[in-house]
Amino acid sequence: MSALFDHHVHSDRSDGTVSLADRAKSVATRPHGVSDHYPWKEKLRDEDDVKRYIDDASRLGLRVGLEYDLGVAPQLGADTRESLHYLIGAIHQISLDGKQIGYDDAGAFVKGRIKSFKERDRFSDPALQKRILERTLEVVAEGIDRDRIDILGHPTFSALQALGDPERVYPEEWQERLIDLCVKGRIAIEINESYGVPHREFLVRAARAGALFSVGTDTHFEIKPLDKTDAMIAAAALDRGRFMAGSRLAPT
Ligand SMILES: [Zn+2]
Ligand SMILES: [Zn+2]
Hints:
Blueprint: H1 20-26, E1 34-38, H2 47-59, E2 64-69, H3 78-83, E3 88-90, E4 93-96, E5 99-102, H4 104-110, H5 120-123, H6 126-145, E6 151-152, H7 166-169, H8 172-184, E7 188-192, H9 200-208, E8 212-216, H10 227-235
Parallel strand pairs: 1-2, 2-3, 3-6, 6-7, 7-8
Antiparallel strand pairs: 4-5
This protein binds zinc ion (2 copies).
One zinc ion is lined by residues 67, 90, 92, 153-154.
């Protein structure tokens, strides 16, 4: 089975451990691009940094994306967006009543880096869950309409994922609305190897709705085989012809 193109790979230009030069070498192992976080601390602070990143990675022959922090990142100029091969939008925190609700602890737990989810009680509040879910759809819609993202990165990752069964924490009706935004916006739903999302039922629903997909290992380390991703694709019986291949789709 030939490897699908991996759009979501970090380098040391944000929080990854591998240089762009070494990323350019591992493309021979299996096809992948690079897509660092924007914004990212002192490394990708503003659009000038992004332009330098695109230039440096392109010179090495890499396909270049960006993991655009939805709800946080400053808007990109049209020319910068056009010079990217693709733009991934992803949510890492949500803003409610002007306060940022971070997902870092949940993310570390979901990725198996910590053993217990300390904020379990807080996120078990149904009223808070409802507000997070509604706000998530608004932020994704803005990413599609305003920022023109091509891929929704780790689509069902939130602090709620750390609570357990995604079919319980994400109402089916909410899943369908998220899928509908992606299908109507013609953006790909990422299968994220690090977070193990989306879960099988979501992928089956998305395929039924005619969604496009994208592989994203979200690796911050060396390139490894796509074992978990291949198993997720097989479990949901997804058509490998519906996957993005390193370029954004032509506008209709
Ligand atoms: Zn992310
Ligand atoms: Zn990432």
